[in-house]
Fold each of these.
Amino acid sequence: MRPPWGRPELYSDYKQDMALFDTRSKALGTAVLLVVAALLPLMTPDDLLAILYTGLVLAIGAIGLNLVTGYAGQVSLGHAFFVGVGAYTAAVISGDPDARRLGYGIEFVPLWLLGAGAVAAVFGAIVAPLATRLRGLYLAVVTLGLVFIGQYFFREFREMSGGAEQSRGAAEPVLFGMNLTDGGAFTEEQKLFWFGLVLLVIFGVLARNIARSRVGRAFQAIRDRDVAAGVMGVNLTRYKVIAFTISSFYAGVCGALLYAGIGSFTPEEFGLLMSIQFIAIVLIGGVATISGTIMGAMLIAMLPRIAEELPAFVPFLSTSASESPNVFQFQEVMYGVLIVAFLLFEPRGLFGIWHRIRIYWKSFPFSY
């Protein structure tokens, strides 16, 4: 029987343990949060909404990375490669057939979104067998190599990308004949935010269901001890391939959506820094948590805006890229500082901080 409000991690039956929302307070809190998020565009400036849209899309990609690294324990540093595959696939599917670069003119969002995810998933399934032969640091180094191979491929496939440092138009989000980047009753940023929010809810719930299913339990068994998981009957090869394929699908979808607001991208954007960004999101948000990943993505998306505001409080920090130290250097350093700080002082990330606050108030006034 489910307790009326429930105490975190106090389960009275197996059904409650496996429920999507294991306490009523969690279900109510999520509903309130979604209502607030849906109303947010009506009271938030467009420039801030554009940043939040980036955070929503980054969260989708980071949830994919958390499934393979956080839940299945397969360290991947090649996430930027799969994001790039998704971005270029969506651009090619929706691109103008009469333009100089490859394009098929299919603008309907679900088609190029699923196409981007599917092509990235195929690449993920091709890479996955490496995980059955390698583990830990060796697997991380091999997946890191994908980033450099991917950048070379993106630069040299000129019919698709245009070449090095050449921008390619991103896929346009056209839904039922309405281009979300055009004006109308609502601004471009408002429509993109709602679009990103709906997709994040869909992909977040899907990932949560995967994590609490038989597949998710197999992932966790492999992460905790793959030899023991194999002895218990878990097919290691099968589940590692599934983990990489799902993770790459999420990355491809993220890549397809990431530049919808900006309108263009270059091959250089899918480099090592992007992979570090996703690793930072997972570590800062919390390993093996969906809600923590979303919190981490929002913090990383807000980091450039926070850096821009700093010169007002830190006079020696310049806003010019030609001077040093500047806000762009500060932003890159902050990724490393935040990763080190969270690993040292709060290994469970932002989710761990939220969990401890929740436990405290649920147990108040008894803090033990």
Amino acid sequence: MKLLEVHVIQTVAPSNLNRDDTGSPKDALFGGYRRARISSQAQKRAVRVAFRDWPLLSAEERAVRTRRLLDALLEKLSDIPQEQARLAVENALNTLGFGFKEGRTEYLLFLGNRELTRLAGLIRDNLEKLNAGPAKGKKSAEVDPELKRSLERILDGGKAVDLALFGRMLADRPELGVDAAAQVAHALSTHKVDREFDFYTAVDDLNPKEDTGAGMMGDVEFYSATMYRYAVVNLDQLVTNLQGDVDLSIKGALAFLEAFALTLPSGKQNSFAAYNPPLFLACRAGEGLPRNLATAFERPLWPQDGKSLSALSVEALVREWDKFDRAYGSLEKERKGAVNLTETEVKGIPLVDGLESLKQEVEKALRELLALGG
């Protein structure tokens, strides 16, 4: 497969970016030792938020994940009497196999903004047909067969980049799903970690002078870690999901690279402000099999020789990369590059001075792979 890989070494100061159900920072056993962990789901959410908030993609090139689909469509049909519009929307969505509970769809749906606009347009154009009978639920919906086919044709992904990257699963209509083009690994620390506790108190500003007790107290768990983060984009799948639009696929892959590199989940940032960008960011593009290099850290790193854990992590990562290349070969038409802000001297990977330069090199590689050289 044609692919783009992103490898990141990132040292994060004391933080609790991604919590479990008890409020503790997530962790995992790896190589027999407890490691800091950030889930893939949380990283993907951070990327989608960046797509929304940064000028990487237009609104039409994005999707929305929601159970409030009914409200979103009614807003687009606000010029139609509400009862009439609501019945039409419910009948249309029931026809597509989506049920409701208390005005919300039964589960989160991931729809492109273009899909939403086209769905509202089709409902508007078929208002009379979709008001012919009461809404009977997803298993008893009755509409004209041709209208049903038209509704189903709308759910083609809408050329939404985030939907194309992260995919869509529709439990009731699996044939309308979209296979994800991007895979994101759980980030792991390159070394062993132990959770720590921050005990805190808060002072009541209006306490009389003689009352010296705290207004409240509590504790929060945290750790600091040097993380290895990895993601891969299946470029063939991305182009398929974006209906053969190579330029949009390249734009989407570059947007993913930037957003993945520069974002992390935001848990407890008001308390920790652990805004630490990557110290090492590498990309590999070409044709072949993806290669997660987490095994470089199966044996946890320990501070040594006065070197930082980030520098030692980069050394281990580059050694692992070279080891696999010698054993299994590199990618076909391989292009790679990296930004290195650690004191480690990196050999075998062309270095650039920053993210913009790296994106330019990646764009050249993707154009060769997908369009001009594909």
